[in-house]
Design a protein that fits this description.
The strands form three sheets. A five-stranded mixed sheet has the order 7-6-8-10-9. Strands 1-2-5 form a three-stranded antiparallel sheet. It is globular and about 85 Å long. The chain has 635 residues and is mainly alpha-helical. The protein has 27 helices and ten strands. 49% of the residues are buried.
Length: 635
Amino acid sequence: MGIVIYAVFIILGFLTADLLYKEKGIYFRAWVGGLIGTLVLMWGIIPFAFLFGFSILAHIILLVAFAGVYAGVFVWKKHTVSEYKRLFRREENPPMTHLIFLCVILPVSIIMWVLLTNHILAPIDGGVASGQSTYGDLAMHMGIITSVAERGVFPPAHNLIDGYRLCYPFLVDTLSSSLYLFGTGLRAAILAPSYVMCILLAMGFYFLAYKLIGKRKVAVLATVLFFIGGGFGFSYFFEGAKADPTAFTRIFTDYYHTPTNYNEENIRWANAICDMIVPQRTTMAGWTYLMFALWALLDAIESKKTGRFVLLGLVAGCMPMIHTHSFMCLGIISAVMFVWYMIKAEDKKAEVKNWLIYGGIAVVMAVPQLLIWTFGQAGSEGFVKFQFNWVNNDDPYLWFWLKNWGIAALFAVPAFLAAKKEHKVLLVGGILIFAIAELILFQPNAYDNNKLFFVTYMLILIFISDYLFTIFDKLKGVKGRYFLAALVIVAGTLSGALTIGREYHSGYMYQTFSDADIEYAEFVKENTDSDGTFAAYYGHLNPTAVLAGRQMFYGGDLWMGSHGYSAVASERKEILEDLYSASSTDEARRIAEENSIEYIVLSNDELSNFDVNSSAIDGFEEIYNDNGFRLYRVN
């Protein structure tokens, strides 16, 4: 039922896109329709969830409201049902042809779909498994999904640390919570919107590239280089294979030993699909909407239509809690372009009016999100601070970026110099993002600044693709130009292709939850208070938090530092140590009651990581005992 409801939103989104862009072709309107339908379900539920909780009622009201608004506009525009025959009309000289969709967009999407399918709760031996890239972060996202749906509390609490609001951008996870709430299984609730966003992202990047350059072949090449691309890391493996043939084959077997993630040789530039899109759900969603926001920004500037600036402002205003890094990048690029167009504008009054409309809508929508969620977390320990040279470990500066970015680094400067003046402005915005990311960390984990670097990277690849075709055309009549072109494409995609091969091979490889974990989690969902607080070991594969969606006193130690809770984490871990090692049931009860702990889990994880006094814990009411799990209620 969750998937059916999501499909209804997508259909309504497509019909809305048909009203907004009736002159556009089917692929474009399908792209925008998917974005609108997903955004309305993801973001539109917020006001109703504040009023009615994250509930079925809130979702039904949202669906009725969306359908009602569309019907009202349909009547207001004086459309007739017969006009729907134009929904699948053909567009003359469309940006995206059937051939491009079938031979480029669909294959790229299928790669992402396959990796998602064998990386997310993949069934194995009665339990479920992940792949290499999803073994870590996926558990946190699943915990958000299940806890929001199970508890129905909005705004969401951080289910891994009791007493704190969830400030991590959560909207892509609450989208899955919506499907889960209506009975869709957890795996399908994650995969269905991920499948949709992946194809929307692939289409969006292509449409953005075409909007900038106006050439299909350039947009195709840029799409391939971005999604399949990587740096020159492959050279280390080919060189090493001369002395040891296993140096190459270990790409497909070792944990994070790939041409785009090889710390021993300071290769840190990831493949977009394997390290950013598949495992990082917020990045996947953020880029999906960033592609449209950048396209809409260029379209609004070109058309000068106020309505286009309004739409841009609405989308931009929705982005902070989808992906804060993408929102920030859009803001930087917009600011640079605003200054440029104010300088060159003949009618500055009309120009500034549209920019103020865009900025005003975006700010009014974004500020509450930033105040309620983002600034509270970003102001905590270890977040924003100065640091130069990203994660470079002792390599010369330019050499680090050359071997990590590969052909993007080789051709970046000439591609920038060859770009049109109005395009250079966009690239200046991208360069500014790069400079900021090189000087300031926006989270405790320095590596996560790649979410900013990647925006510069995706923009420069578009212009590099155009520049490469310019060189190719100038070599007309030169023998071997096709060989040289193939060599450049191979050099730009080999590291990424090998990494994708490794990621596929890692599917089903790492068991995350056993059948016993799943059975225990089902009991917890059906037989415990959805608002109860649980004490358990804080490993990231915690079935109580992840599969049952219950509130943990402290859990998921893997993420607490990066979420700004290092000091609190130390205190909570000490309390858990004291609870499990209490000398008597009375002492354990005192600790539990002082910290509002209502359930205590005792499994192999707790026995292996705490100095457990089992006799003290056994004094509580045992409500579950099976397959190595014991669960106690604190009376």
